[in-house]
Fold this protein.
Amino acid sequence: MNSVNPQKIATLYTDATLVETNKKNALYCYKGFKSYQPLNIWWYEHGVILHTEFRDGNVPAGFEQLRVFKKALDCLPEDVEKVRLTSDTAGYQHDLLKYCEKGENERFGRIEFAIGCNVTQAFKIAVAQIKDSEWHPIYKETNGKQMKTGSEWAEACFVPNALCHSKDAPEYRYLAKRQIFEEQPSLPGMEKAQPSLPFPNTANGR
């Protein structure tokens, strides 16, 4: 594979996939049906699954992600020099984040990552304290032009409880995303009957 299209960078994406089954000995997943839930490590640059671990359906997606990630790193060919990791909130495991941030892998050192965090009440409070001037528009390229998407991002000042007990704990950047809803004109004759929303017109994400 690498002799045809060698890559020095490996962008890896971890994701658990539910596979519904009718097998008698299969276990129920969190969605209420019998399944298996393999944890896959996807290699973006090559468009292939680098490593996978077969699991029962009741195994949480975040279970032992660091162990599986280490096995995936061992599968990378010798010409790979740099690794990046991305995942949804299932990958928000502090042992995994620390392993990447502290450069504990002997071969690749510090591994850059972008992982969705759990939107806890404490995180929501931190996002609510972001000033409007600190939000930045998110663009996408359309026909060669940069177009606004209607979404914005900002950096939140947030330290999770799991990192508050050690002076040597790693420091992470937490980025929030919100969707801007444009005000819609009232229908003729319903100007006074238009109800007001019981929440702000922005939705904070992770």
